[in-house]
Q: What sequence folds into this?
């Protein structure tokens, strides 16, 4: 509809016509502007600190899932041993049952060969008193043997029933642990993929800056820890001398692994995760400890931070999802996370949950 038609019936002065024309030109100009020019502005680019926090969170969640995976793996191996042991017991019990049935069959065949008479009937047909007494003794022994065989048969049947029930329970638990293990594996892979994708979007210079930012945050945390009341009384000079012989061997093993890659679920000899390193170190030193950081925290004796000595294990984060080995002088050795290698770091560079002492 034209401008004049739209305003048909309105008295048009020259000035009114000029206003109408100007208005039409403005509307046409506005309509010609691309819609993109009116779109919301693009969201601001994320800071490197935000990226650092998200990457750290993803790796932390992956490490927590790794502990769940390791725990499920340990339980699955235990259940597999239990099932295997029960299978051997069932096989032995079945063999005994077959032997009993064979002996019962032999008794039946013996009775058949004697004419099918019951032992008591043959007893009263003895030709003489001596034969009667001999037959009586033989009959009693046979009856005793028969009762023992029958009792043994029932016992073996009950034993087989118990084993079958136990095996069924073990299989159920094994399936549950395998499900937990698979779920944890998917969780780990999902978190690691997300972290890698996030890091892959960074330029080489940004990745280097990100690494330095991580190191700076760890350095600041270590300084705050050293200045805290938690370490008052902790010797930070020549503290390696306070280690026990077995603790020193554990430290020597752990530090000898420096430079080897972190791989979740690994216990060496070429790659490790955090608890894989500590458990392998203490096992090599001659004192096996639980496999996971959470079980190490739960089962091993706890000591105060100010009293820790080389070889003690430092448990990190509120969920006990990371562990390192204290080596003295305020320093620990650990397998940090995927993409990193076994290395030394400040003992207070992460939030400490507590300290445990193997041996």
A:
């Amino acid at each position: 509809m034209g401008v004049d038609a739209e305003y048909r019936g309105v008295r048009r002065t020259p000035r009114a016509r000029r206003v109408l024309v100007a208005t039409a030109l403005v509307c046409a100009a506005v309509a010609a502007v691309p819609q993109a020019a009116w779109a919301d502005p693009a969201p601001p680019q994320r800071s490197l600190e935000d990226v650092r926090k998200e990457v750290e969170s993803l790796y932390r969640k992956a490490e927590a899932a790794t502990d769940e995976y390791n725990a499920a793996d340990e339980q699955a191996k235990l259940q597999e041993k239990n099932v295997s042991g029960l299978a051997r017991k069932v096989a032995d019990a079945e063999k005994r049952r077959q032997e009993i049935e064979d002996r019962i069959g032999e008794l039946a065949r013996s009775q058949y060969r004697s004419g099918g008479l019951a032992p008591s009937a043959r007893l009263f047909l003895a030709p003489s008193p001596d034969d009667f007494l001999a037959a009586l003794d033989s009959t009693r022994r046979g009856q005793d043997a028969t009762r023992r065989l029958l009792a043994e048969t029932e016992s073996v049947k009950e034993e087989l029933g118990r084993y079958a029930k136990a095996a069924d329970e073990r299989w159920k638990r094994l399936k549950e642990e395998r499900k937990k293990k698979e779920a944890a594996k998917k969780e780990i892979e999902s978190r690691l993929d997300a972290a890698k994708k996030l890091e892959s979007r960074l330029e080489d210079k940004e990745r280097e800056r990100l690494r330095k930012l991580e190191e700076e945050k760890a350095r600041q945390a270590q300084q705050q820890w050293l200045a805290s009341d938690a370490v008052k009384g902790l010797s930070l000079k020549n503290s390696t001398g306070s280690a026990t012989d077995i603790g020193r061997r554990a430290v020597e093993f752990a530090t000898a692994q420096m430079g080897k890659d972190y791989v979740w679920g690994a216990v060496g000899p070429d790659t490790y995760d955090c608890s894989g390193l500590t458990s392998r170190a203490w096992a090599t030193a001659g004192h096996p400890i639980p496999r996971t950081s959470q079980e190490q925290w739960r089962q091993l004796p706890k000591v105060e931070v100010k009293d820790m000595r080389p070889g003690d294990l430092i448990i990190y984060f509120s969920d006990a999802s990371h562990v390192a080995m204290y080596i003295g002088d305020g320093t620990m050795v650990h397998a940090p996370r995927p993409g990193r290698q076994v290395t030394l770091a400040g003992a207070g560079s992460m939030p400490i949950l507590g300290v445990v002492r193997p041996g």
User: Anything to note?
Assistant: Confidence is low (pLDDT under 50) at residues 1-12, 19-43. The longest strand covers residues 322-328. The chain has nine helices and six strands. Residues 32 and 147 are 108 Å apart (CA to CA).
